[in-house]
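Margin note from the TA: students keep mixing up input and output lines. Inputs are the sequences; the output is the structure of the whole complex. Example:
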Amino acid sequence: MNSQKGKNTKITRRHFIKVTGTIVLVAGTGWNLSAADEIPPSDGYLLVDIKKCQGCASCMLACSLVHEGVESLSLARIQIMQNSLESFPVDLTIEQCRQCVEPACVKVCPTGALKPNAKYGNVRMVDKENCIGCGACYDACPYAPSRAALAADKDYDGEDRSRKCDLCANAPFHWDEAGGGPDGKQACVAVCPVGAIKFTKKIPKQEGDDGYKVDLRDRNWGKLGYPTR
Amino acid sequence: MKGYAGKILRLNLTEHKVGTIPTSKYQHWMGGHGMGSAIFFDLVKDKTIDGFHPANVVTMMTSPLSATLVPAASGRTEVQGIGVQSYPIGWFTRSNLGGRFSGMLKFAGWDGIVIQGKADKPVWIDIRDGDVRIRDCAPLSLWGKETWDCQETIWDYVLSGGKSDDWSSPAGKESGMTTQRPAVVAIGPAGENRSRIACLIHDASNAAGQGGFGAVFGSKNLKAISVIGTGQVEIHDPKMLMATRLWQKENYAFDLNHLKETWGSFQFKSPPVPILFWAKGRPRIDQRPQACMGCHSGCRARYKDAAGNEASCFASVFYWDARNLDIQRLASDLINRYGLNAVEMIYGLLYIHTLRQSGQLKTAKIPDCPLDFSRYGSKEFIEQFVKMVAYGNDGKGNESQFGRDISDGFVRAAEKWGRRKQDLDSGILAFPYWGIPIHKEPRAQVYWGYGTLLGDRDINEHEFDWIKWEATSAKSSGREPSLTAKEVVRIVTDKMIPFQGDLDMLDFSESNIYSEHMAKMVSWQRYYTRFWKQSMLFCDARWPDFVNIQRPDYVGATGIAELRYVKAVTGEIFSFEDGMNLGRKIWNLDHAIWTLQGRHRDMVHFVDNVYEKRPLFQADVPNAYMPGKENGKWDYYAYSQRTLDRDKFDEFKTRFYRLQGWDTATGYPTRETLEALGLEYVADELEKAGKLGKG
């Protein structure tokens, strides 16, 4: 289900104009494209078990809550998509940001707003001050749905800004004083009622889905009558 | 106040108009049922109209907690209007469905939907954020489709033929993006054909089952409502909301690493295991739990073969005599696809089958029954039966008077056959009140029957049900219950504000079931559910949290948790008692509507069978044990084999009416009581109709 995408072409064209119109800004940002070749890996990753998920979308509600202070499925950095009428396990998938070792979204960002943040273990984060809402990251993400998404931002007069998973590093409404990031707590992991989302510091296998979509079902899960294979 | 979208969608199907009502006008009712009743009262000038009348108004309301992280409170939608199922009058009634419809409605920017009038041809409603269209069913050939086909067709249409595996902007490129499918509520052929037991279906098996709202939709030529929202819900204190959710998860919910139970129950701490009653048990195939939006513990499942997806409770009881599990799962799917009320289908089939077994099906007044009972238990038999009710024919496309009769509900069918009283009296027609099927045994769990009779529908409220399950399970297996009867009664009644501490409210002994204590018990449940469950939309399967075995002291979170959530989401400092007072106000408003419809004390009685005979069929749990005080000693006792005393029940009504502040002679509300609740305008309307009680 984690298909390489065929993107929404309307959005691509719309943002192409923004990209071309703002490319001139790149030189002045201090971010230099050649440095993308030396992007350090993130210190943290989210793993999910799509066979364990109960589809409640609590992770999505928690994500938008701690990041934006509102409830919104559209503003969630993790997406659950499901079809009530389908058969298990293809009835549901979870699509989370992979914090790619070779992050296409970082490489393509024309202003350097999306980059590894050393303060938070090199998580790929958007600096909204520098984001111009061009959508290049949205287009560049090789996965569908794109893990970087655009949405109108009330803090910027309703202009589009990119949003992506930062492992709750920059979550102004984080419930825990110590906050998030690779060394903190992630809202989706904390709230998931069935433990279908896990945080790891180990770099998952980058090819295919196996490294990110894993088996988190143990003997106790089996006691409830669910498959543990 | 935060948590609201700020506007309610108003649809006038007759005039093909889309309008809005500011939520602020009704915000003092908080949400859900309270708002729905108040809107209904204002918009329906003549409360005596039939449910099929175009002037009937149907409301579908959310709450400020919908679409939020409040556990088991985010996904429910309250449906209200004049129903067509109950007998002899289709009372103003309610139903409720889970899933993701209410959440999606909030994300689209709406706190509810008000449906007025009747379209001149079949239509469906297409809501995409603020863009609302009343669309003709013809281009998509929706009219005639089963509920699942209808939903899939709408999904494809709204997503422009795409799948929901990528971002899309269904409300236009200037609106937000989403990866989600629209949430659709649809009727099936049963609703289109105005079967009085037709319901509303959302996704696989979320049903607003009671009241016959499927038929009411059908009478309005309304096939479906689809909503997709890309917006957001403002939260007063996001940190508090997240922290409270995690606090309750940590301290009151199931713990996968230390499971104390491995089965599903109607409790907050229940693990996410489907609550199923298929005769052959839960299928031993690959599956996942499935939960409504925001719920911490799903009570349904989806299966490797998709058969019986999300079916639970009564949807899984239907066709108990199926030859095998696969056929029974198919039967669950059939009632969802054709859009039929599972409970009435269960007791209706039991009635027809009993008539046949006792040689009474072929009597002069009963039209020819097209069913071949030699195939009873087969797939073909149940398909035909479901289609007979849904289409009002022989289930094979041919005219059938028998099919037409049962499509109107089984009590009305018996009435046409001249056997309603006789079959209610004997008990083979197990519909003990208002022409509504039995659920819990009214002779034992008296609050359930009293609440239903004093209200409008099978209450289907499980606050106290765990007590019986635990005691009966312990007794039948020879183990000690986890708590003594007195301990349970103490923990529960401690939380029953404003009657807290009166232990005798839960004494089900013969000497107490008509008492003032029981009147308080019934009152508490009527107020509690009207507000906390049906207006704030805390789910019946998970709330309240009375007794909680995860806790060292067994004391659940109710009374603390709800208030924290309301505060976190809305910013309001709201006490449990504030909610109970508002619940009482809503209960009084509903009762005033029933009074205007024609309710009088003299109508409020069980069928004779409940007073004169022991149960013919075991409703729910055979030989259920309930707490009681016999000779001064609290214990669990079996009370299901008794009968109720007609005269003593009449005395109970007097006690109950007096406690409500109603006229004990008529049951009518009094001006004094209504004015004290801020319902002067309701008293005025009752007075105009000559139905104001004497105070």
